[in-house]
Amino acid sequence: YYAAVQNVARLSYQAIIAATFVVFPLVSRSTFTDDKETTRGYIRVTSRYSLIFAMAIAVVMAANPAEVLGLVYAADYVALGANALVPLALGTVAFCVLAINGTILNGAGLTRPAIAVAAVTLGIAFIGNWIAIPLAVPHGRTLEVAASVSGGAMLIGAIASGEVLRRRLGAFVPWMSVARVVIATAFALAVGRMLPFTGKLMTLVEAVVVGVTFLIVLVATKELGRRDLDAIRAVRAKRGSAGEP
User: Fold this and answer.
1) What domain count does the chain have?
2) pTM, whole model, 2 decimals?
3) 234/168: higher pLDDT
């Protein structure tokens, strides 16, 4: 059952994994030429967009976990796994950030810090689950406790790797961007929980409404705008030049 929840929660990671293949050569080139300002720009843009896109997917699942699981799994999976999907979906967003951060660190030649943060994150998840799961079993909450511990470990890893980026390369996701994403997530979750939709078709409709709400709040808070289109074009242009012989 936990594997089924993981399969759904990982959709956000699968959506942003292509970014790792884009940012690695860009950071490798800019750090090799000691272009610090360009490197910082790559970090801010990649980290910020990865957070936004991953959360846009995760918030849809967190807003309506039982119905989303019910789209692809039987009723017993929904009954046992719905409560675990919320922390695991949101935790996977943190894992996305951690993966992007690790890719940037590796691209900049900072392999040891990347490995160290990943090892600490894994250790926290292992020890946390080793302690928490036996306590949760008698109460029948094993899946949600395991998901919460794992999600918490990934959040710690994302923050730690972000701090390494900030100290070693001078940039990470702007804190105002993080705050706006949190606000947009809260609004989208509230909308999703209030909608009375049932059934598979209406679950898809609700998913669209929740996702659009998330984006509207980001636009309203000026987190998303015309400058983002310009930034995307700039990154694509840099990527093209990086591939030139």
Assistant:
1) 1
2) 0.84
3) 168
